[in-house]
């Protein structure tokens, strides 16, 4: 159904709603309240209700107040209600307890549920317009991904540290004792690699907001969908920044040598996982001369020595992000703040990275604002 037809359907669903001309905001706290079942709460996400009534239906609303994100004063079939997003979720308060009844409230909730479903269909084109204009914020999940990386890395290192055959021990017994932890080390190591490159791509998207990004000239969605290497080269100048170039090639080698084959069913771009036949000798891997050590040698695709090589490369990359040419940009992003791509935010970011002191003050202010918003302490 086209957006125009969806808008007409939404208008029909909400035909019994109209703005409450002279609302009393005191009813938001402590007054009577329409009781919502768990199923109804789930069906009425607060922001979906806002989109249906305000964004797409233009009903006036109140902005923030203590512990309240917004309030929409409406009349439904002539009876006044305040619909608000409070700290603990959606709340519906009748203007006067004597005017409402169970049947009317059931009808109101039913109409809102239908309105939410229709507005969901209107959201995508609206959201795409907002994103194209840079009016978008990305929740910062960097801490989650890097935490996942270190969690699996520590597990892998512990497994790989299991000693091999000891002096005087039967070699067969010693080898068999180490097989299980080495195999588990590989499981953890491969998971840590996936987590790190997820973290890397996530951070590169966030730091773009600090790098002279202009939504009128560059598509954020296309950047998000691009290869990690293209993201890296957009954020860092590999020609002018020698350290960035070294880190890029180091990460590229880790990707090609270890992560890519593991992520694509054991196959890599250059078909080095294939084994060619040599008469009189047998099948040899295509990668035999490419790397001294690759995922295709030994019992497990990643062994202790190669995992240390990987970790050394990733540690150098982390040191570069912390101390390199984009250190202030990365400091802001690694703080955990949500990143907005709006014109105002991008201007603020540009000012924030003028010095370390400016960055620290900016970070403290943003994190305080985020904490206040979480608790609705406006």
Structural topology:
Layout: H1 3-13, E1 17-19, H2 38-43, H3 46-55, E2 68-76, E3 79-86, E4 89-94, H4 102-132, E5 137-138, H5 142-160, H6 171-207, H7 220-225, H8 228-235, H9 242-263, E6 275-278, E7 282-285, H10 304-323, H11 327-334, E8 339-340, H12 343-352, H13 356-374
Antiparallel strand pairs: 1-2, 2-3, 3-4, 5-8, 6-7
Helix pairs in contact: 1-4, 3-4, 5-6, 6-8, 9-10, 10-11, 11-13
Task: Provide key terms for this protein.
378 residues; alpha+beta; four-stranded antiparallel beta sheet; two-stranded antiparallel ribbon; 13 helices
In short:
55% of the residues lie in helices and 10% in strands. The longest helix is centred in the middle third of the chain and has 37 residues. It is built from 13 helices and 8 strands.
Strand percent estimate:
5-15%
Q: From N to C, what is the helix and strand string?
A: HEHHEEEHEHHHHHEEHHEHH
Which structural category do the helix and sheet elements fall into?
Answer: alpha+beta
Counting H and I runs of at least 4 residues, what is the number of helices?
A: 13
Amino- and carboxy-terminal Cα gap: 39 Å
Task: Tell me the number of strands.
Answer: 8
Question: pLDDT average, as an integer?
Answer: 87
Rounded to the nearest angstrom, the radius of gyration is: 28 Å
Return residue spans where pLDDT drops below 50 for at least 5 consecutive residues: 289-299
Strand order of the largest sheet: 1-2-3-4
> How would a crystallographer describe the biggest sheet?
4 strands, antiparallel
What is the approximate shape?
Answer: elongated
Helix content: 40-55%
């Amino acid at each position: 159904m086209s957006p125009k037809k969806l808008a007409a359907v939404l208008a029909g669903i909400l035909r019994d709603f109209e703005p409450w001309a002279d609302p009393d905001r005191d009813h938001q706290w402590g007054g009577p309240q329409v009781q919502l079942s768990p199923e109804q709460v789930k069906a009425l996400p607060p922001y979906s209700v806002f989109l249906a009534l305000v964004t797409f239906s233009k009903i006036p609303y109140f902005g923030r107040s203590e512990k309240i994100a917004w309030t929409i004063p409406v009349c439904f079939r002539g009876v006044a209600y305040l619909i608000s997003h409070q700290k603990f979720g959606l709340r519906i308060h009748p203007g006067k307890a004597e005017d409402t009844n169970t049947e009317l409230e059931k009808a109101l909730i039913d109409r809102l549920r239908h309105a939410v479903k229709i507005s969901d269909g209107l959201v995508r084109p609206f959201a795409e317009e907002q994103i194209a204009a840079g009016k978008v914020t990305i929740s910062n999940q960097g801490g989650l991904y890097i935490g996942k990386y270190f969690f699996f890395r520590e597990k892998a290192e512990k497994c790989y540290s299991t000693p091999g055959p000891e002096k005087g021990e039967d070699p067969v017994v010693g080898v068999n004792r180490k097989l299980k932890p080495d195999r588990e080390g590989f499981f953890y190591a491969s998971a840590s690699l996936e987590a790190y490159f997820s973290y890397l791509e996530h951070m590169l998207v966030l730091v773009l907001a600090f790098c002279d990004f202009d939504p009128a000239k560059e598509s954020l969605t296309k950047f998000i969908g691009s290869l990690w290497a293209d993201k890296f080269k957009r954020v860092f100048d590999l020609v002018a920044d020698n350290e960035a170039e070294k880190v890029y090639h180091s990460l590229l080698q880790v990707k090609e040598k270890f992560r890519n084959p593991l992520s694509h069913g054991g196959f890599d771009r250059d078909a080095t996982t294939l084994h060619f036949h040599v008469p009189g000798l047998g099948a040899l891997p295509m990668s035999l001369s490419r790397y001294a050590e690759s995922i295709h040698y030994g019992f497990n695709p990643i062994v202790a020595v190669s995992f240390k090589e990987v970790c050394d490369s990733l540690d150098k990359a982390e040191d570069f992000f912390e101390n390199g040419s984009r250190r202030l940009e990365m400091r802001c992003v690694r703080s955990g703040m949500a990143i907005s791509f709006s014109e105002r935010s991008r201007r603020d970011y540009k000012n924030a990275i003028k010095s370390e002191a400016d960055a620290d003050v900016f970070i403290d202010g943003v994190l305080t604002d985020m904490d206040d918003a979480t608790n609705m302490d406006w």
